[in-house]
Amino acid sequence: MTSRFTMAVHALGMLACEGDRCPGKALTSEAIARSVNTNPVVVRRVLADLRRAGLVGTRRGVGGGVALARPPSKITLRCVWEALEEGEQLFARHPAGPNPKCPLGLVVADYLEDLYGHAEDLLKTSLGKVTLAQLQRDISARLAAAPTPVH
Amino acid sequence: MTSRFTMAVHALGMLACEGDRCPGKALTSEAIARSVNTNPVVVRRVLADLRRAGLVGTRRGVGGGVALARPPSKITLRCVWEALEEGEQLFARHPAGPNPKCPLGLVVADYLEDLYGHAEDLLKTSLGKVTLAQLQRDISARLAAAPTPVH
DNA sequence: GCCAGAGTACTCGGATAATCCATGTCCGAGTGCGTACGG
DNA sequence: CCGTACGCACTCGGACATGGATTATCCGAGTACTCTGGC
């Protein structure tokens, strides 16, 4: 599922903005979950992948939480994508592989492998051009342009 | 799931090759399922979408099955993608939407909506350039280049 | 020998049960702060 | 009054139920071929 990527970008956007307002400040998974509108454990699972990839750091205990491990300008959406890519891919292949007895099936599988590989490379290249710093600026601009939030 | 797209391309590849060797010949969902290595009913469900989109035609009874409803040169992978896109998208958004109380969440959701929209457009454009006839030629070439299948 | 009719075999299409994955809930591990006690 | 040690509150991390979705099984609808009986 790619909703994990959506959540990751959302969380990182929050962390970038928070780190800008108050450097070194960590957000709790519970606070992020409130904004993402999901369960804290889901956020923790996503952030665990980002932690393993070295994008964020976590601290337990009182005042703990999650914070960026690098400056936002050094984090691209491609890094995020690849951190979550672990063991799952955008395009699902044959669930059980094609029938090895059928040569056409093998060829089609190869063809699709190429096709999907190119599409994913294209996407990754596109995501690699967006840094978290740019994302944060864009978010700030949109926040400033938005009317006061309703109560 | 995008494995449906994989199966659809696989099935259409078979149909194109079959229609080339023996025009008007229909393949049964059971034969396709054997090559795809799945259950015939899964193939039928995928083909049902393609039928609703007017890409293939089905005939019941003895000698029935599925056949292309248009010449392969008139079918692009984009058509296939859009036929299966019904109610599901490549990039999953927030499962329950972001928290409307959090302005940042709304902005992030908007941002991702743009990002995903552009990515999907790019993909569709790319798929639109590939016709089933080209796919069939590529498959035939690879089949000819492949060594004799092992027994 | 020829024709008509019913029977049969084979296929798709939809409804229903089983399995798998994702989500949600719970409990343990770790950490910093506050407090209380002793020197 | 100061320092240290204990306790507590809070947070992440992983293990175990629960729900939804995808998949697999079953039965009905439709069609063409075939066999049999009559003319």
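qc> Chain B has a mean pLDDT of 91.
qc> done
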